[in-house]
Amino acid sequence: xxxxxxxxxxxxxxxxxxxxxxxxxxxxxxxxxxxxxxxxxxxxxxxxxxxxxxxxxxxxxxxxxxxxxxxxxxxxxxxxxxxxxxxxxxxxxxxxxxxxxxxxxxxxxxxxxxxxxxxxxxxxxxxxxxxxxxxxxxxxxxxxxxxxxxxxxxxxxxxxxxxxxxxxxxxxxxxxxxxxxxxxxxxxxxxxxxxxxxxxxxxxxxxxxxxxxxxxxxxxxxxxxxxxxxxxxxxxxxxxxxxxxxxxxxxxxxxxxxxxxxxxxxxxxxxxxxxxxxxxxxxxxxxxxxxxxxxxxxxxxxxxxxxxxxxxxxxxxxxxxxxxxxxxxxxxxxxxxxxxxxxxxxxxxxxxxxxxxxxxxxxxxxxxxxxxxxxxxxxx
Length: 380
Known about the structure:
The chain is α+β, with helices and mostly antiparallel strands. The protein has helices at 2-25, 30-37, 55-69, 93-102, 121-124, 133-140, 143-153, 168-188, 225-232, 236-240, 266-277, 300-303, 349-379; strands at residues 43-49, 77-83, 109-113, 125-130, 158-163, 212-217, 245-250, 254-255, 259-260, 291-292.
């Protein structure tokens, strides 16, 4: 019987090590693997209303719904329109919980949740307010998000968004320090050598290179109000902070979480860049830090090796002529998702930790069984 267990343990060790070699064997850098293979998860827009939608409300709701379902507008939104008074279609338990959490009778009411929602308002919801054409327009697009998409589609490894504080001295000091670090790292970091026989090799003909850029976002820019709230995750403390905030973005708009400038050390910057440019050790996107921001971009053009064309987004409102933007009602304070970057030599991800623990456990099991087997032989 002990021999049987010993054989099983040996098999487990082989399988574990085999899985580890597979995880470590991916030679594609994280930022390129994410760009080519991690589809942007949709933010969930729920529009609650009472009775039939009319006029502009109906036009805005229908436009959002059409965009979320259109192949011509590649945007990561999932839209649901719900009549809370329709007895023929009662709310699901999840939607009922979400609606009751709003504590409002104003309709139509729009709620926006981060991807992979759990319908926990404190964790998921980053915007809630009266349905409005201007706010909806700011949700789907903004000038700085267009720049992020263009930079990444041009082959940049990552874009570091700096959400300015408004204090020029603080903002300029952070930009100078960040820029200095990124320039140094771009020169010393070596990309993993991509194995042409790797089954997970790159599909795009886009040249592989290390390039980091900085994108400044003026905190009170009315065109970026929804983007700002999305980045801060509903964290009232971070939003009210007098410090600038940095959000690294890579792949198809995957943000690694908002980091207050006072917490962004040189080692932290080095770790973030090391993770992004290191070999992809975890193929499951959700096991990597961060969340996807709302971005309208034709990512599939890269995979299909065709010319990237800016998506034709129906103008709910003219961004150039926004005028006064309605007051934005944010959700209750949420926990900001912080990145946990690895060292500058490249990130190994959560899978490596699991593998290491598994190996240790199997080795301990083997040792115990081996000793038991020897003791059993001695007793015969």
